[in-house]
Task: inverse folding
């Protein structure tokens, strides 16, 4: 919401139809669009997000995955240690 999408570089879209073997490409340049416009009286776009800019750095998903993997290992070790201790006591835990 309140964001437009802008791509200043040339973008080529392949429009080839496999059935009729017609080959065509569509080249778009200076493209800006806004899907959900809330201001109908204004003729300008909202703040633009560039087409080549990444939304999320690659380090964030890697860090989250490592943290979740570490948590799984800690829980597994605690579970196995608890089973080993209860097996060492035998049937005295009634």
Result:
């Amino acid at each position: 919401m309140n964001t437009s999408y802008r791509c200043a570089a040339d973008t080529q879209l392949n429009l080839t139809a496999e059935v009729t073997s017609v080959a065509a490409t569509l080249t778009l340049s200076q493209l800006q669009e806004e899907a959900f416009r809330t201001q109908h009286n204004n003729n300008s776009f909202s703040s633009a997000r560039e087409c080549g800019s990444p939304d999320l750095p690659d380090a964030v998903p890697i860090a989250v995955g490592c943290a979740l993997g570490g948590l799984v290992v800690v829980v597994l070790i605690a579970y196995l240690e608890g089973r080993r201790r209860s097996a060492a006591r035998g049937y005295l835990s009634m």
User: Anything to note?
Assistant: The first helix runs from residue 59 to 89. The beta strands are 3-7, 11-14, 25-28, 31-33, 47-50.
